[in-house]
Design goal:
The complex is a heterodimer. Chain A is mostly helical. Chain A has 15 helices and no strands. Chain A folds into two domains: 53 residues, no CATH class; 215 residues, MetI-like fold (Orthogonal Bundle), CATH 1.10.3720.10. By secondary structure, chain B is mainly α. Chain B has a single domain, classed as MetI-like (MetI-like fold, Orthogonal Bundle). In chain B, α1 packs across α13. The longest helix of chain B is centred in the first third of the chain and has 36 residues. The relative contact order of chain B is 0.13. The chains are: A mainly alpha, B mainly alpha. Chain A: One of its GO terms (biological process) is transmembrane transport.
Chain lengths: 278, 284
């Protein structure tokens, strides 16, 4: 791509404009978090230069956010997402490995079970699942928040597809060398599957970071509330503090933003890889 | 045979996933069916809960609202995702960054998105002041029975469209370049290429997006719960909000379970129809 034609330039402008429409609410969220609370609504209507450019910056909202109970909720959210992704990757990758590589009787049945499990919408079974978890006394616990995110049928499916694409010869050679199934899984399949593992991790991260109904049901106590629930309750509370709401919302958007920007490298590298093949 | 000797090691690899899927997905689904068949304050099976919800005007209203919502939002979102995918599928500088920007809303907690949009939709909010710029008077958005469902659709689309776009871009990149080259030799214009090469080649990812998007839109909850609570006048009372209200506001577990079963059945039927229509079921 040495020279950009006018047509391509026009396309770039359209792309940027479209993307900016998607970014607009987030941009506005961020500047609102950084301006004095009184300014958030003062310049909103009618539309003027200060609507989108903060005339005064402050860290008050962020400081206020972290000194209140919200900091605990953010820690909860991070712990839940992190534990889910780590445990979920181990559980789903090993299941996917068995389904893709090991031949055993009943494999079809197990695979079908996995597929059916992700066709059942999770939010739709949240209420009966809540009664099961209550039976095990798992309300207001990390286990109650994390467990439903670990056995992810979609992640198993995705990883299995990827594992199936790894040449059979590799594991046959490894078996001749006397490697067991576990070594083959750990030192051949996992290192070769980084892009698929990243995608599976993203699926599980989004599941937890997005979650609202389930944490609302299982962990309503002040200590165990996740950030998404805590934030929604800011606005229904008596003294609505929009400064805090915006600061909390900006923080909750910042974390996935950083993760996406970081993994963008993986996306571009895979695009580069397909480019070199042509 | 070695296949039988593999069963122990396979079980070891599979056990955690199978246990969690059975315990945390299939069992609660079975419980929902079981609960829905138990009449309130009775121990024998009956269809009372189903008879009740199908005569309950607020449940019937939520089914109607959900169907209306699906019929409008799914085609719009898929068309938008496809348009965006075609626009964003290139190697121009910065495109990767902009693509990430469009994808970003999906990872933000829905409660956050709902709170942002709640402020944007206020009478003195950002949207009204933008409309004023182009000479349109103030709109009521989520407080108007006519506009509320559309306002929810806008929020849900802002959240989800980038995700479906990403899936479709992956599909577009799998289409062999040679197909377009031979179409060019045959004298096809851009529209012909889209219709005779892109769309047929995209059938698998499109099927996936169609099905997954439909399922996701049947389960919209947080934006409704936070922005409108199902109102005004029940105009945004999607089934998930109805189930939540039944179970946790009215304490009526039996009819909540029956409504859940109806919802899952509805989703499965529609998913099956879509697979049929896309002709994907016979292919595997």
């Amino acid at each position: 791509m040495d020279r950009i034609t006018p047509r391509q330039a026009l396309r770039m402008v359209v792309i940027a404009a479209t993307a900016l429409c998607f970014l607009m609410p987030l941009y506005w969220l961020t500047i609102s978090a950084l301006r004095p609370e009184a300014d958030i609504f003062r310049f909103l209507n009618p539309f003027g230069p200060w609507t989108l450019i903060p005339n005064q910056l402050t860290a008050d909202n962020i400081v206020g956010l972290w000194s209140g109970s919200f900091s605990r909720a953010i820690v909860n959210s991070i712990v839940v997402a992190l534990v889910t992704v780590i445990a979920g990757l181990m559980v789903c990758a090993s299941a996917a490995f068995a389904l893709a590589v090991i031949e055993f009787p009943g494999r079809g049945v197990v695979f079908t079970t996995m597929i059916v499990s992700f066709l059942i919408p999770f939010d739709a079974i949240a209420v009966p699942l809540y009664s099961i978890m209550r039976g095990f006394n798992l309300q207001n616990s990390y286990a109650g928040l994390v467990l439903p995110g670990i056995g992810n049928g979609l992640a198993v499916f995705l990883l299995r597809q990827f594992f199936q694409g790894i040449p059979k010869e590799l594991r046959e050679a490894a078996m001749v060398d006397g490697m067991g199934w576990f070594r083959i899984f750990w030192s051949i399949y996992l290192p070769l599957s980084r892009p698929a593992l990243v995608s599976a991790a993203l699926i599980m991260f989004i599941f937890q970071w997005q979650a609202y109904l389930w944490p609302l049901l299982i962990a309503p106590s002040n200590d165990m509330k996740v950030a998404a629930v805590a934030l929604a309750q800011f606005s229904s509370a008596y003294n609505v503090s929009f400064g805090l709401i915006f600061a909390g919302a900006a923080f909750l958007s910042l974390i996935p933003m950083l993760i996406f920007v970081f993994f963008q490298q993986y996306f571009t590298s895979s695009v580069a890889a397909t480019g070199s093949k042509e | 045979m070695t296949r039988w000797s593999n069963i122990r090691v396979a079980a070891l690899f599979l056990l955690p996933a199978v246990v969690s899927v059975v315990l945390l997905r299939l069992w609660p689904a079975a419980i929902a069916v079981h609960q829905s068949l138990l009449a309130p304050r009775a121990s024998s099976y009956s269809l009372e809960n189903y008879l009740y919800i199908f005569t309950d005007p607020s449940f019937l209203n939520s089914v109607w609202v959900t169907l209306l919502f699906s019929f409008i939002i799914n085609p719009l979102q898929i068309a938008a995702a496809l348009g965006l995918a075609i626009l964003f599928n290139n190697k121009l500088p910065m495109t990767g960054f902009w693509r990430t920007a469009v994808l970003l809303p999906v990872a933000i907690p829905q409660s956050v998105s709902a709170v942002i949009w709640a402020v944007a939709y206020r009478p003195d909010g950002l949207l009204n002041s933008l409309l004023q710029l182009v000479g349109i008077g103030p709109q009521r958005f989520v407080t108007s029975p006519e506009q509320a469902l559309g306002s929810i659709m806008l929020v849900v689309s802002w959240i989800g469209v980038g995700y479906w776009m990403t899936m479709l871009i992956a599909g577009l990149q799998d289409i062999p370049k040679s197909l377009y080259e031979s179409a060019t030799i045959d004298g096809a214009n851009g529209w012909h290429k889209f219709w005779y090469v892109t769309l047929p080649q995209l059938r698998r990812p499109l099927t996936f997006v169609l099905v997954a998007d439909t399922v996701a839109n049947f389960l919209v909850f947080a934006p409704v719960n936070i922005l409108t609570g199902g109102g005004p006048q029940g105009s945004t009372d999607l089934i998930m909000n109805q189930i939540y209200t039944n179970a946790f506001v009215n304490g009526d577990q039996g009819s909540a379970a029956a409504a859940t079963v109806v919802l899952v059945a509805l989703v499965l039927v529609i998913v099956l129809i879509q697979f049929r229509l896309m002709g994907d079921g016979s292919e595997r």
